[in-house]
Amino acid sequence: MDLGIRNRHAILLASSRGLGKACAESLAREGVNVVINGRTEKDVHDTASELAAKYGISASAVVGDSSTEKTQLLLLEACPEPDIILLNGEGPAPKFFQDIAEKDFSESLQKTLIGPLMFVQRVTPGMCERRFGRIVAISSAMVKSPHSAMSLSHGPRLGLTGVLKGLSKDLAQFNVTVNQLLPERFDTYRQEQMAQVMMQVRGMTYEEARADQVKSIKAGRLGRPEELGDAFAFLCSAQAGYLSGQNIQLDGGSYEGVF
Amino acid sequence: MDLGIRNRHAILLASSRGLGKACAESLAREGVNVVINGRTEKDVHDTASELAAKYGISASAVVGDSSTEKTQLLLLEACPEPDIILLNGEGPAPKFFQDIAEKDFSESLQKTLIGPLMFVQRVTPGMCERRFGRIVAISSAMVKSPHSAMSLSHGPRLGLTGVLKGLSKDLAQFNVTVNQLLPERFDTYRQEQMAQVMMQVRGMTYEEARADQVKSIKAGRLGRPEELGDAFAFLCSAQAGYLSGQNIQLDGGSYEGVF
Amino acid sequence: MDLGIRNRHAILLASSRGLGKACAESLAREGVNVVINGRTEKDVHDTASELAAKYGISASAVVGDSSTEKTQLLLLEACPEPDIILLNGEGPAPKFFQDIAEKDFSESLQKTLIGPLMFVQRVTPGMCERRFGRIVAISSAMVKSPHSAMSLSHGPRLGLTGVLKGLSKDLAQFNVTVNQLLPERFDTYRQEQMAQVMMQVRGMTYEEARADQVKSIKAGRLGRPEELGDAFAFLCSAQAGYLSGQNIQLDGGSYEGVF
Amino acid sequence: MDLGIRNRHAILLASSRGLGKACAESLAREGVNVVINGRTEKDVHDTASELAAKYGISASAVVGDSSTEKTQLLLLEACPEPDIILLNGEGPAPKFFQDIAEKDFSESLQKTLIGPLMFVQRVTPGMCERRFGRIVAISSAMVKSPHSAMSLSHGPRLGLTGVLKGLSKDLAQFNVTVNQLLPERFDTYRQEQMAQVMMQVRGMTYEEARADQVKSIKAGRLGRPEELGDAFAFLCSAQAGYLSGQNIQLDGGSYEGVF
């Protein structure tokens, strides 16, 4: 399937590894030039180089925390007229609700809600003028089925979900779409980390820890990052211009609810 | 119907007028002792006196911004063991999405999301211990159908919705329920104010402005504050202990969606 | 709380026992005259007599399957101008999806979807004319979180949910509201029956079977029928005229989803 | 993007024209062999011939009403081991709720709910055994935002939505996914027909009628059938195996609700 986005330009926040990198790779494969971002210099540069070499596209590297104005300006310097934006970022660690301090909330809100929205403000006027834009956020399945220990994650993320939805209604007429992917349990370094934690905390073997992660997933397996990358690429395609304001779960069919 | 809450104690944030006052009055009528709160000293005292006199309950007055630690501690001083909590607060003014500054977001998030959650942290341990709690937030119909000009309202409110939902799952076992009411277009001072704005901005007569407010409401009228007050009182009743985690729209049947 | 419906008239389908009876009792307590319906003659008459004697209201008994035209006409003969309607009926037994025959579907759709809608057609014109109507259906929590073995239940019920929602938008202007209650695990004869089945099939003791029923309920207990009855009565109240098109879960806070 | 489904086999109900044909074409382009179905012999054969010639795949033609056992058996004869199923069918005409007869409901339920489910029963065991299946239904945006005049459409369709969701949870472990597309206002013969009706009934010019159809669409245009076809093809792809139980609106960003 030709996605009709060859030679377009994309800025991908937090894309040096994991799900963000998978998104960048799916776009690069379709001939999209990408800006790779992350906080670890080596990872960012390695990913950019790798994709440029593998797919023959142009790939820039911008190191820094994408929720800050400074990094956002650098990103737009590297790519002044982005057609595609991936909103992504590392989630906070779990914390018992009663232990969450005001500062925890305001930090998480800054990173996960305010930062991304400021970036959206920066890119949408140009997208509207150029009559093409694809904004996709990697959110979390928890925005639909929250658990209190992840309040620092789903609180800000659900706020973002609402603001993006409201915004999507304004932008549709300009062929600018806004959608979210809601992943649950993908096979990234994060699940690796969590397996290590479970081995220490619960005395499991590595195999038991990995098996445990799959228990709540109806598909009986973790998601593969490239599956999310390709869903993302489809949402960025020319032919997805009539699809906006959607929250698509990538969770192995695990969500209980009808809608 | 006997709501089974006579002599219980309630703290109602932002309850000196409008929907918050209606909630206080519905509880007072059922014999609940109330703490009235608001930022305008006279309004707070007047409402407390009025309800105490009219219903023979005890009504305290705590003046201050309920999203601050200082006021929250005063509220708990006035009522150390609340059985019922109303989370309520004035919403922000509309603002074009592109005009919203970082500071607007952080202020609104502090007031509408962080502040209420800090208060919830303060009251839930006691409620769980005493095996009774009713937490109800007055949110907005917009958390389900957002418009970009109200991003400062539905962003924080939807974040709150998610955190409260996650929390409700933990608290159910202690007979502590958490629910939200989602009003749209009630006949309060706010609609009066908006009518005045429309008269000036659009050159409408008062009658035209008021008629215009009703256009989007399928019931063909504004809601009456006491209708919301009584729905609130029902959610606070002893017999509503099995009803938790719900978001109930009070919108004259106007919402488009099935769920 | 005065529900403002003294001397009104209600027809309650499938109300001779269980949740339907609890609804009838809550209305009778508020001074509403009721028509009791069910398929077991003795139960219907006993319930009608009991409520009439206990609450001093008028209670008629109409025996028959309420999804049939014949019984619907008898119900309207007993109460030609109903103000309140309870849509209720026994659900079908579980069945593996692959074992469901066409006939199973058409029977269940007739009973659970078509029958109730035909009754709604019969009563709404009068309600609109008289400018008061409260239509409430007891549906099931499964309409939001379906499991394949209950397809004969949630399929028709979800269809009904959609039609009632569409209808609620037309009726709001006439002070006719349409809402649903979505119960999960109430302490009725049905859970008794299921406990018996579990004792036989899984070799559990009665206590184990009853404990097992509570496992999935976050409140840690079954619902009490009178809790559902009172929620129903509130939805039928005069002051609930601005609340329509809602699906309220009564599930001990168990549903995973935010909305 | 390589969808990984070359040489797979698909049965597409109601695919001789409109959205169904667009789905067939998107699959054919990806190298999938298709069975075309419809009730008009010439259309079915023409579409099959056209796709076979254009894309070099095998395309069979099965004429008949796909909700009947007879046609379903013919479809499975033409393609005994389908990997992909499109559930699709013409919707009923609008009808005032009060004018809908029992027979209207039972006919529509047979066509739109029971028929498709019987077909799903026929194909899922084989899909599970072969560890690959993609079931996609073209539903309607109205299943999320129903209007009473379309009760014969959204009633059955919402019932189907629920049953398919329940089923999707069982099938995920076998790499069999079940999803729905919810279109609103695509540029097919149906909108042409409706424009003709509006010209006659409301005395509009053709241009006015077409403009009117776009008014409620936030994208400011009708959807293009090939946009739906490609979304369908993506859902059928090998890499969409972790995406199941979703209802994706293709409505130009028009739906009001967050979820």
Number of helices of chain A: 8
Q: What is the spatial order of strands in the main beta sheet of chain A?
A: 3-2-1-4-5-6-7
Percentage of residues in DSSP E strands of chain A: 5-15%
Helix content of chain A: 40-55%
- Just name the CATH architecture of the largest domain in chain A: 3-Layer(aba) Sandwich
Report on the architecture of this protein.
Four copies of one chain form a homotetramer. The mean pLDDT of chain A is 97. Chain A has eight helices and seven strands; from the N terminus they run βαβαβαβαβαβαααβ. Chain A folds into two domains: 9-185 and 223-250, NAD(P)-binding Rossmann-like Domain (Rossmann fold, 3-Layer(aba) Sandwich), CATH 3.40.50; 187-222, no CATH class. Chain A has helices spanning 18-29, 41-55, 69-78, 102-130, 151-171, 189-202, 206-214, 225-235, and strands spanning 9-12, 33-38, 59-63, 84-87, 133-138, 176-183, 247-250. Chain A is of the alpha/beta class and 259 residues long. In chain A, strands 3-2-1-4-5-6-7 form a seven-stranded parallel β-sheet, with helices on both faces. Chains in contact: A-B, A-C, A-D, B-C, B-D, C-D. Chains B and C meet through helix 5, helix 8 and strand 7 of B and helix 5, helix 8 and strand 7 of C.
